[in-house]
């Protein structure tokens, strides 16, 4: 039966508005007999009927959902009744009542497959919170069964968590937990899951683990190739989609898993400064991508898809840029301008990181970047935080969190991760040139990024440099420096306080 709380609310509304059942039925679009049976407790209120009644009463959507969920769990589970409520709750983002209903349903194990399929539907629609509730509860109900569905639930929960790139601690916990379920997935899902894990650890900068997963991915593909060749089948070339890792989105779905294993090791060795190893795997990337394109051309020849290999171009461009970058970072001066020309002729998010690499190489090997930095000035200006723009020089105009996109300061991941180090490298370059005003300005930018993103290692490095060259800072610079330190102090105090402190 419908919850008496909802019935009482409807009856109270009819009384205060002096409406008959027939009049309200007409207003809500319900049959008067149906409405009468609902109020008398002879008929269960459906979600659609409840939504129409809620609208007719002038109440917000989902107003009665909590009461409706309580009424549902007091009755026998019924998929035809519960499914519309779960779908509508997910649509409205009112997920509180979903948990109790899902748990009630899972008292009967036969509902597990249905709820899992519904969770997959929610995931495809981007309703991550609702999907997560279903996956979590299905996994909990099957934790002693060691089923593939349990492993898939854990995989999906990991994929959902990694959508929020800023929640690094939570992502690390989810990745570590999911690794325990990896081997329970089928072979095709295992390969994609390995790639998801590796790309996640790239984001977390766990280079040793990335290298291990890349090697495991290559071994798995080699073993699968032997098996599939024996069975006369074609090996799957790559995953259907990537979740949460935007930097590789341009080419990730187009690559074979083996090629991804090479790509991952290029990233690892470049970050470690092992440029010869990185160049070796870049050569494997080139050879494999050519072979892959040739195979695709043979498959597509004579069909409308003949031009398909051209879709490998984003990856081939990445390989070319990485090759130039590794040679430059290894000290090959002659490729510096070629790398700058290659990057500056492009319009993509990788330009910021390219400028950072060039400045870092210049500080290491003494390259003269003055002409290149003039060309890069619009890129540098685009990363600068708007500090010290007022004549009084006592205000930092801090960017606010964009709740719609869930990003802070900038949608560009490189900016969030490396803004503080980007400007420190620029400051060091100018210090070597004894251009102290520019160096101090870049140190203040670096400190602003460090405070804004909570990058404590970057803050310490920046403050140490500023104090070392304080004599070259003007009064305005020192005022800004103090303001930034004060903001850092307030942030630290706010984190330290607890409710017990009276905060």
N- to C-terminal distance: 47 Å
**Topology order in helix (H) and strand (E) letters:** HHHHHHHHHHHHHHHHHHHHHHH
- Helix content bin: 55-70%
Shape: globular
Mean of residue pLDDT values: 83
**Count of helical stretches:** 23
User: What is the C-alpha radius of gyration, as a whole number of Å?
Assistant: 29 Å
Helix vs. strand class: mainly alpha
The total count of strands amounts to 0
Largest sheet descriptor: none
Which segments are poorly predicted (pLDDT under 50) over 5 or more consecutive residues? Answer: 230-251, 301-310, 388-411, 498-503
Percent range for β-strand residues = under 5%
Description:
This protein is mainly α and 503 residues long. Among the domains are: 186-330, no CATH class; 384-503, no CATH class. The chain has 23 helices and no strands. The two termini are 47 Å apart.
Annotation keywords:
503 residues, HTH cro/C1-type domain-containing protein, Cro/C1-type_HTH, Lambda_DNA-bd_dom_sf
Secondary structure elements and pairings:
Elements: H1 4-17, H2 21-28, H3 32-39, H4 47-56, H5 65-73, H6 79-92, H7 96-105, H8 112-124, H9 128-141, H10 148-161, H11 168-179, H12 187-204, H13 207-231, H14 257-272, H15 275-300, H16 313-329, H17 336-344, H18 350-365, H19 370-383, H20 413-432, H21 436-453, H22 456-468, H23 475-496
Give a short overview:
The chain has 503 residues and is mainly alpha-helical. It is built from 23 helices and no strands.
């Amino acid at each position: 039966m419908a919850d008496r709380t909802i019935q009482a609310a409807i009856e109270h509304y009819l009384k205060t508005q002096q409406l008959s059942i027939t009049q309200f039925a007409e207003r809500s679009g319900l049959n008067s007999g149906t409405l009468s049976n609902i109020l008398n407790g002879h008929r269960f209120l459906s979600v659609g009927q409840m939504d129409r009644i809620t609208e007719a009463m002038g109440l917000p959507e989902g107003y009665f959902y909590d009461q409706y969920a309580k009424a549902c769990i007091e009755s026998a589970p019924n998929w035809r009744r519960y499914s519309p409520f779960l779908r509508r709750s997910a649509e409205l983002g009112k997920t509180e009542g979903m948990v109790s209903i899902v748990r009630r349903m899972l008292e009967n194990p036969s509902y597990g497959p249905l709820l899992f399929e519904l969770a997959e539907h929610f995931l495809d629609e981007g309703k991550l919170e609702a999907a997560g509730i279903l996956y979590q509860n299905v996994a909990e109900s099957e934790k002693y069964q060691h089923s593939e569905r349990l492993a898939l639930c854990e995989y999906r929960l990991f994929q959902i968590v990694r959508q929020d790139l800023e929640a690094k601690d939570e992502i690390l916990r989810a990745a570590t937990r999911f690794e325990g379920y990896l081997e329970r997935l089928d072979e095709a899902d295992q390969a994609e899951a390995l790639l998801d894990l590796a790309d996640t650890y790239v984001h977390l900068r766990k280079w040793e683990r990335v290298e291990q997963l890349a090697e495991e991915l290559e071994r798995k593909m080699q073993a699968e190739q032997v098996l599939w060749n024996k069975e006369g089948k074609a090996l799957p070339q790559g995953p259907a989609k990537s979740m949460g890792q935007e930097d590789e989105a341009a080419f990730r779905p187009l690559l074979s898993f083996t090629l991804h294993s090479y790509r991952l090791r290029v990233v690892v060795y470049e970050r470690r400064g092992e440029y010869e190893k990185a160049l070796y795997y870049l050569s494997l990337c080139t050879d494999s991508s050519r072979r892959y394109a040739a195979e695709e051309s043979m498959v597509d020849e004579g069909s409308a898809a003949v031009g398909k290999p051209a879709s490998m171009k984003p990856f081939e461009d990445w390989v070319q840029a990485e090759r130039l970058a590794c040679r430059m970072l290894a000290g090959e001066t002659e490729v510096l301008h070629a790398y700058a020309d290659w990057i500056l002729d492009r319009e993509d998010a990788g330009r910021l990181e390219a400028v950072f690499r060039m400045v870092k190489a210049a500080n290491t090997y003494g390259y003269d970047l003055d002409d290149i930095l003039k060309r890069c000035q619009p890129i540098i200006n685009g990363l600068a935080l708007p500090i010290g723009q007022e004549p009084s020089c006592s205000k930092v105009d801090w960017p606010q969190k964009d709740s719609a996109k869930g990003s802070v300061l900038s949608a560009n991941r490189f900016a969030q991760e490396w803004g503080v180090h980007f400007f420190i490298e620029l400051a060091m370059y100018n210090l070597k040139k004894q251009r102290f005003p520019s160096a101090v300005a870049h140190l203040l930018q670096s400190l602003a990024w460090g405070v804004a993103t909570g990058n404590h290692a970057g803050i310490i490095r920046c403050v140490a440099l500023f104090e070392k060259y304080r004599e070259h800072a003007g009064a305005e610079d020192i005022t800004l420096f103090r303001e930034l330190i004060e903001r850092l102090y307030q942030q630290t105090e706010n984190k330290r306080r607890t409710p017990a402190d009276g905060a």
